[in-house]
């Protein structure tokens, strides 16, 4: 009985105190109005919820704009997008903080996506569509970002000067038989940093460093600023082999079906080809997170994958999408299934190793 009486007393005290609590709350709210005034609150944007979604992307406008137009046709949701370099967009998201208008950030390479998540620029999203469509290796372990298309970074060669039977792996390109015959892109490109980060995961630092030193010793010329220039150097006879993302070769073959550089799927007997992604996620302070999630879900749909992946000669992240044209001609390959988040986690190690190995 005593306990009950006590409870009643407490309840009474609470209900009696409630008006005071409300007043205190109002005071706190009023004192922070200046904050509220300059932050987008979810409620204040609810009118926009169904009508638009804002995207920051480092993808080239001509690749992504037709997709966004199609999304608007299908859903009535307008897609406003800003295109810039990934570094500029990451800095912008950091600077804007809670005031960002961006709901979605889309960029390329798991290294960049990981860096953005380390800066706290994404939020975890729950989506059975994304979890079922995007294999775990190609999304963040906390579902902060998801792969939207796959790009394979593999070996290319001049078939007149190299027989495919001489080729095997990235590691083999350190062999002295390639002395003066290898072309590489600069190590400042995140594509190479991610490749080497995954090699560190497979072989450890020491072995990876000696492989990279072997590459450097085999270089025919200074590293190139682009994969296209590298492929053209093989065509021109400056070197015989190199490592590139396949879509750069695909573009050259689409312009000239007899283009004299061929593709070799690396490491089919062991780790598989290094595959990276373009990807995206919902921003940490998205004013319209649901609209952002719906757009990303649509981007992995079979319809969107045709324009998002195949139009850029990348591979679809959705395994239900058939491939065609030049990329189908390269045949099936085994991809490295090590989670790409490791490319980000080991990025700093990779950059230091590349520097120590003298790869500029
Ligand atoms: Fe690229």
Describe this structure in words.
- The chain has 360 residues and is of the alpha/beta class.
- The protein has two domains: 45-150 and 276-321, D-Maltodextrin-Binding Protein, domain 2 (3-Layer(aba) Sandwich), CATH 3.40.190; 153-274 and 335-356, D-Maltodextrin-Binding Protein, domain 2.
- The chain has 15 helices and nine strands.
- Strands 1, 2, 3, 4, 5, 6, 7, 8 and 9 form a nine-stranded mixed β-sheet that branches.
Concise synopsis of the structure shown:
Helix content is 45%, strand content 14%. With 360 residues, it is α/β, with parallel strands linked by helices.
Shape: globular
- Work out the helix count: 15
Q: What is the CATH level 1 assignment of the largest domain?
A: Alpha Beta
In the residues, how many domains can be counted?
2
Order of helices and strands: HHEHEHEHHEEHHHEHEEHHEHHH
What share of residues is helical? 40-55%
Radius of gyration: 25 Å
CATH superfamily of the largest domain: Periplasmic binding protein-like II
Number of strands: 9
Mean pLDDT: 88
Low-confidence runs of at least 5 consecutive residues? 1-47
What structural class do helix, strand and pairing data support?
Answer: alpha/beta
Note the beta-strand portion.
5-15%
Key attributes of the depicted protein:
14% strand, binds fe (ii) ion, disordered N terminus, globular, alpha/beta, 360 residues, D-Maltodextrin-Binding Protein, domain 2
Helix/strand layout:
Layout: H1 2-31, H2 33-37, E1 52-57, H3 61-75, E2 78-83, H4 86-96, E3 104-108, H5 110-118, H6 128-133, E4 146-157, E5 182-183, H7 190-203, H8 205-218, H9 227-236, E6 241-245, H10 246-255, E7 262-264, E8 274-282, H11 289-299, H12 302-308, E9 315-316, H13 325-329, H14 341-345, H15 347-356
Parallel strand pairs: 1-2, 1-3, 5-6
Antiparallel strand pairs: 3-8, 4-6, 4-7, 4-8, 4-9
Helix pairs in contact: 7-8, 7-15, 8-15
The protein binds fe (ii) ion (FE2).
